Every structure is written in structure tokens, then in C-alpha cells.
Amino acid sequence: MRFVLGEILKVSRDRNAVAALYKAIVLRFIIGV
């Protein structure tokens, strides 16, 4: 699992990837509530 998380973190260094993750999380929170 740690290796997988490491790979995800490496990819997340791209601001686009981070922005996409944030949007997905925010949308889930809004829809969830």
C-alpha cells in the first residue's frame, strides 16, 4: 500500500492532478450533504 500511495503522491505533484482530486472531494462532500 505504501508503494501505491507513493506513486499517487508522485503523480499528485502535478497541480492539475491535485486540482482534480480537490474538485472530486468537494463535489462528493456537497452531494453527500
Question: Can you give a write-up of this model?
Answer:
The relative contact order is 0.11. The longest helix has 18 residues, at about 15-30. The chain has helices at about 1-10, 15-30. It has about 35 residues and is mainly α. It contains two helices and no strands. Helices cover about 90% and strands about 0% of the residues.
What is the topological layout?
Elements: H1 2-12, H2 15-32
How would you concisely characterize the structure shown here?
The protein has helices at residues 2-12, 15-32. It has 33 residues and is mainly α.
Please bin the fraction of helical residues.
Answer: over 70%
Which structural class best describes the helix and strand composition?
A: mainly alpha
Radius of gyration: 12 Å
Proportion of strand residues: under 5%
Number of helices: 2
* Biggest sheet architecture: none
**Gap between N and C termini, in Å?**
30 Å
Question: What's the number of extended β-strand segments?
Answer: 0
Order of helices and strands: HH
Query: What oligomeric assembly is this protein in?
Result: single chain
Average pLDDT reading: 79
Low-confidence stretches: none
Shape: flat
